[in-house]
Amino acid sequence: MLGAALAAVVVCGSSAASSPNSQWRGDKRDGVYNETGLLKSWAAEGPQLRWHYDSLGQGHSSPSIAGDKIYITGMTDSTGTLYVFDLQGQLLNKKSYGLEWSVNYHGSRSTVTVDNGKLYVFSGRGVLYCMDEKTLDLAWQKDALHELDGKNLRFGMTESPLIVGDVIYLTPGGQENSLVALNKNTGALLWSSKGTGRLSAYCSPLYIGETEVPLVVTAFDSLLAGFDAKTGALLWSAVQNPKHRHSPNTPYYENGLLFSTSGSECGSVQLRITNGGRSVEEVWRNEMDNKMGGFVKLGNYVYGSGERKRYWYCVDWETGETQYKSDTLGMGNVIAADGMLYCYSDKGEMALVRPTPEKFDVVSRFKVTLGTEQHWAHPVIYKGTLFVRHGNTLMAYKVKG
Fold first, then answer.
1. Cα(287)–Cα(275) distance, rounded to whole angstroms?
2. Residues 257-271: tens digit of each pLDDT
3. Which residues neighbour 132 within 8 Å (Cβ) at sequence distance 6 or greater?
4. Ranges assigned E (strand) in 118-201
5. Residues 320-332: what's their mean pLDDT?
6. CA–CA separation, 191 vs 348, rounded Å?
7. What SS3 class is residue 396?
8. What is the pTM of this model?
9. What does 278-311 look like in DSSP terms, one character per residue?
10. Left if phi > 0, otherwise alpha if psi is -120 to 50, otherwise beta: which for 25?
11. Distance of CA 398 to CAs 65, 113, 191, 382, Å?
């Protein structure tokens, strides 16, 4: 620990971002977007395609939208580039930031975090960049692999930066710097935690501010772990041991309960946070084994897809019981808005689904035909528009009447 720096850490609020800021999977990292008046069904060919841009390069990162500007990254010839668009699809600016991941499943990974006039990008090569929102000039950078003795992963770093107050949290995953806190304005190291001493697991961390001890929760190769957000002390860990050590999904917290799901035989687990955040106890486990598509909680149910058997699941939040599992749609990722699910399968189908514990109720669906390579980027909804990224293409669909 860097004891002298602890007093400089300021943790405020109970959310990692607030308007006009933007981050991974919405304001609370839960995949639920605060939109109203959206269409409850689409035409047979899908909603109206307002515009598309076909030169992003390779990548799987989602768009981040703040102040009516869209920020997204892509890779061309091993170099990562940050693109800025307006809501009409006009390219306003772009800036190369450094080497991106070109070893396998090429391209950018993490979603840009927009925070108080700065943009934060974490490359698959493990470099965190802080840029000025208006000029895209580099303010500072931090190499998590070389400066913090981190260890890169088989498929590159994919973590989307988490910012709370003046602190940015990062998971190098090394023996000495399992989790670190940096000053978001300068990149200076505030504290370092040995934590688990294990590799990170592609996970974008979650901040929980309402517990007696504010927490940062994230996944490592075989564990879900909770850290004191002010000091970095490892408070607890719970077994989450997927076959290939991949746990990319951000956990979900509500009223003292924490939910996490990971691929392969690991499935899902709900934990109760106890002793003011200092410990946890297991409540239930379920077979839903979502690998990287995220999940959403609407009402009393959790919705998401599996990996091994490629089902879509509905799980009771209170009991952990599976309400249904359906193979109507290929496995994929999910977000929600205005009481509906938006399910994007790895086969390239986008489906509008009515959330109900009785069945996987597909109302409308269409095929995403533009773009390249894998259908892995998580969609985003902003001001009545559904943004879908497929490889080198960003698409904007009108989903409000």
1. 28
2. 999 998 777 899 999
3. 117, 118, 119, 139
4. 118-122, 127-132, 138-143, 162-164, 167-170, 179-183, 189-193
5. 97
6. 42
7. strand
8. 0.94
9. TEEEEEEEES---SSS-EEEETTEEEEE-SSS--
10. left
11. 16, 24, 45, 10
Cα angle, residue 197 at apex, residues 179 and 12 outer, rounded to 5°: 20
With 0-12 / 13-18 / 19 or more C-beta atoms within 10 angstroms meaning exposed / middle / buried, residue 25 is buried
Domains, in order of start, for the chain: 61-108+110-157+160-198 (2.40.128.630)
* Residue 224 tokens, joined: 């879900």
pLDDT in tens, 100-141: 999 999 999 999 999 999 999 999 999 999 999 999 999 999
Least confident range from 50-54, 185-189, 192-196: namely 192-196
In the block, tokens 């910012």 appear at 163
Q: In what order do the strands lie in the sheet with 267-274?
A: 252-254, 257-262, 267-274, 279-286
Residue 397 tokens, joined: 């669909």
Cα(324)–Cα(362) distance, integer angstroms: 14
